[in-house]
C-alpha cells in the first residue's frame, strides 16, 4: 500500500527533502507530492491567460491556477504535512490546513515553539504538532508499520 503525503508550506528550506530521505531510510512506501516550490513560477502560473490591470488580478489569476494542483493533491493525499517557517507568514499554508480541516483530511503541523500562539487554531485541528522532520517521519513509520 502506498501512502500519499502532501507537503505544504514553507519553501525556503530543505525540510521536504529531509522527510523524504527519512521515509526512504525507514523503508516506508510513501508517495510525496507538493505545491510548486519555485516562487517565481508560482507567481506567474496564470500569466499565460493574459495581461491584468493590477497586481491583485495577476495574483488572483495565478492563485486559481495553482489551486488546481493544490486542491487535487490535497484531496488525493492520505496525510498532509503543513510546514510553517519563522521567516515569512505562510498564509497559503494556513489556508491548506483549513482546507484539510474542512475536508476531514488528517494533517500534522511542523513548526517551532515560537509560533505556537499565532497557530493555535491551526494546531488545534491537527492530528499532531511536530517541531522536527524526524518527528514527522516517526509518525509515518508508526502509521505504516505499527
State the helicity in percent bands: 40-55%
Q: Which strand order do you get reading across the main beta sheet?
A: 2-1-3-4-5
Give me the strand/helix succession. EHEHHEHEHEH
Give the helix tally: 6
The average pLDDT is 95
Share of residues in strands: 15-25%
3D structure, described in words:
48% of the residues lie in helices and 16% in strands. It contains six helices and five strands; from the N terminus they run E-H-E-H-H-E-H-E-H-E-H. A five-stranded parallel beta sheet has the order 2-1-3-4-5, sandwiched between helices. The chain is an alpha/beta fold and 146 residues long. Strand 1, helix 1 and strand 2 form a beta-alpha-beta unit. The longest helix has 22 residues. Pfam families: Nuc_deoxyri_tr3. This is YtoQ family protein. InterPro entries: YtoQ_family_protein (IPR019884).
Q: Which SSEs are present, and which pair or pack?
A:
Elements: E1 3-9, H1 15-25, E2 30-33, H2 39-43, H3 55-76, E3 79-83, H4 91-103, E4 107-110, H5 120-125, E5 128-130, H6 133-145
Parallel strand pairs: 1-2, 1-3, 3-4, 4-5
Helix pairs in contact: 1-6, 3-4
Q: Summary?
A:
The chain has 146 residues and is α/β, with parallel strands linked by helices.
Amino acid at each position: 500500500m502506498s501512502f500519499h503525503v502532501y507537503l505544504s508550506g514553507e519553501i525556503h528550506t530543505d525540510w521536504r527533502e529531509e522527510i523524504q530521505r527519512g521515509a526512504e531510510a525507514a523503508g516506508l512506501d510513501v508517495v510525496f507530492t507538493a505545491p510548486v516550490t519555485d516562487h517565481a513560477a508560482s507567481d506567474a502560473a496564470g500569466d499565460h491567460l493574459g495581461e491584468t490591470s493590477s497586481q491583485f488580478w495577476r495574483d488572483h489569476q495565478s492563485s486559481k491556477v495553482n489551486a488546481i494542483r493544490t486542491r487535487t493533491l490535497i484531496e488525493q493525499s492520505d496525510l498532509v504535512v503543513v510546514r510553517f517557517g519563522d521567516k515569512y507568514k505562510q498564509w497559503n499554508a494556513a489556508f491548506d490546513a483549513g482546507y484539510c480541516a474542512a475536508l476531514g483530511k488528517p494533517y500534522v503541523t511542523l513548526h517551532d515553539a515560537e509560533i505556537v500562539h499565532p497557530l493555535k487554531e491551526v494546531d488545534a485541528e491537527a492530528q499532531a504538532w511536530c517541531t522536527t522532520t524526524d518527528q514527522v517521519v516517526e509518525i509515518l513509520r508508526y502509521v505504516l508499520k505499527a
